[in-house]
Specification:
By secondary structure, this protein is α+β, with helices and mostly antiparallel strands. The chain is built from seven helices and 15 strands. Helix 5 packs across helix 6.
């Protein structure tokens, strides 16, 4: 299968788990697989249970409609006065991919047209200027939602994912009552029921959305509504005194609104704010797991480690070394000796002793080392969820802590996105989640203490602000590590 077919598969798939840079998954036979060839070393199968994003939300807003072309009011021809009405909407939103979703939307409002409630004098020889109208409408429509910001986002984009440009288009049914007012008083002149052929309408427009937090978005939106009906404004063919003021037979209007969206679900991020690069990584693993013949390496694989040079962070990996998803040779115990050369893969030790500790044998007895620092537990952006790729490191930590006599502090940290106060709370949640995991898996609670240091404890201090660094460095700053007390 060629690259084009693989790309099509990527575009049709729903984005899932974000890409783990420090994968140490262990296969059933006890070996450490290469993350590319294993197909499941750094991701979980995509199911509604395992996904790490929300894809439902509800939205509501209010605004002002303005007739653009009709017999009684026309921006183009200068008919009548440009009178603003009022409108409101509520919708149920479903994200299909990071760049496309659907909305089931209900609109209610009133447009005003002609010379209604104005003090402007009108010539007696122009009867259409002596008529005013207002139209009360209710509409139900299905809208497609395209997130252009995610659709056009580059792989190395450093955006904080706060702003997004959306495009909308859809069709539905509109019911309305048009009231006409002249010298003799006011009367209802047209009534259209919903769900009939003549009640079909269309609308399209754009919105600029701002992410306030993980739950709330606000959005300014401008829609153009095409009713397909010449009598929507209270004029039209039935009323010869005011008809044919417009050449077209559709009374159309603009609708400017300001709204709010509430994102539903238990996860930290919403699919429409999800990093689109994560979809590609997930699909590469899934396709590789099915032994499909795909061509994805534009620049080749110089060190033959299974990670394309396009995103390989270590282009000279020694032959036979196991690597993580970024092409870096695995160092499970983070002692500076890669697993290929480490004689004690799960216990830290100095380089001169081939990665084995000098204070105790590699395979027995307690480790009497009170200054040990264990790292390698990284997190997704704005998330405190323990990733599947972190569990082997944590399981090793359980064994290490239980075999030692000391106690340890579990320290949480973040990158420099968001405010100091938010990052402090996020780092505390990360530390407590890891602490609870260790206790649940057998560590005595008295041996552990959890604290958060927010963004004040960066592994890469140069990443302040985060836009100065590549994403792998920011990810390394989003971590939990251990220190001996």
């Amino acid at each position: 299968m060629k690259l084009s077919l693989a790309i099509v598969a990527f575009a049709l798939a729903v984005p899932t788990a974000s890409f783990a840079q420090d994968s140490t998954a262990v296969s059933s036979n006890g070996e450490y697989p290469n993350t590319f060839s294993s197909g499941s070393a750094n991701v979980s199968p995509f199911t509604n249970k395992s996904k790490r994003f929300n894809d439902w939300s509800i939205s509501a807003g209010a605004g002002v409609p303005l007739m653009q072309s009709s017999d009684l009011t026309s921006i183009k021809n200068g008919n009548g006065k440009n009178l603003f009405g009022y409108s409101a909407y509520i919708s149920i939103d479903k994200a299909i991919t990071h760049a496309f979703g659907l909305k089931l939307q209900y609109d209610r409002g009133e447009t005003r047209q002609g010379w209604f409630n104005t003090k402007d004098p009108v010539p007696a020889n122009l009867p259409y200027q002596q008529v005013a109208a207002r139209t009360q409408y209710d509409a139900i429509s299905i809208l497609g939602d395209i997130n252009f910001s995610n659709l056009l986002r580059r792989v190395d984009n450093h955006s904080p994912f706060r702003w997004a440009l959306h495009g909308y288009a859809g069709v539905g049914t509109i019911a309305y009552r048009a009231y006409q007012k002249d010298a003799s008083g006011q009367k209802m002149v047209t009534e259209v029921k919903p769900f009939k052929l003549g009640s079909m309408f269309a609308q399209a427009g754009a919105g600029l959305k701002y992410k306030v937090n993980r739950r709330i978005d606000i959005e300014g939106r401008l829609m153009y509504v095409m009713t397909g009906d010449d009598e929507f404004d209270g004029g039209g063919n039935k009323y010869s005194a005011i008809n044919q003021r417009e050449e077209q037979v559709s009374d159309n209007f603009f609708n400017a609104t300001l709204g709010i969206s509430l994102k539903l679900g238990k996860h930290e991020s919403h699919l429409m704010w999800h990093d689109p690069l994560q979809e590609i990584y997930y699909k590469l693993d899934v396709l590789a797991d099915k032994n499909q013949d795909i061509e994805v390496c534009k620049k080749g694989d110089a060190d033959n480690d299974g990670v394309c040079d396009d995103w390989d962070r270590q282009l000279d990996t020694p032959a036979g070394a196991r690597v993580d998803g970024a092409g870096v040779a695995l160092d499970t115990d983070l002692d500076g000796v890669i697993d290929l050369y480490d004689k004690c893969v799960t216990v830290p030790g100095p380089v001169e002793n081939q990665g084995c500790p000098t204070t105790a044998p590699a395979t027995g007895g307690p480790v009497d080392d009170q200054t040990r620092t264990l790292e390698g537990i990284e997190f997704d952006l704005n998330s405190d969820r323990i990733l599947p790729s972190n569990t082997p490191i944590l399981n090793n930590a359980v064994n290490y802590i239980n075999s030692s006599d000391g106690s340890y502090t579990v320290i949480g940290a973040t990158d420099t996105r968001a405010s100091d106060a938010y990052n402090q709370k996020l780092s505390e949640r990360r530390a407590n989640n890891v602490k609870n995991y260790l206790i649940k898996n057998g560590v005595q609670s008295g041996k552990l203490n959890a604290i958060g240091r927010g963004e004040k404890d960066l592994k890469y201090p140069e990443c302040d602000p985060a836009t100065k660094c590549p994403e792998w460095k920011n990810r390394a700053n989003r971590r939990v590590y251990f220190e001996a007390k």
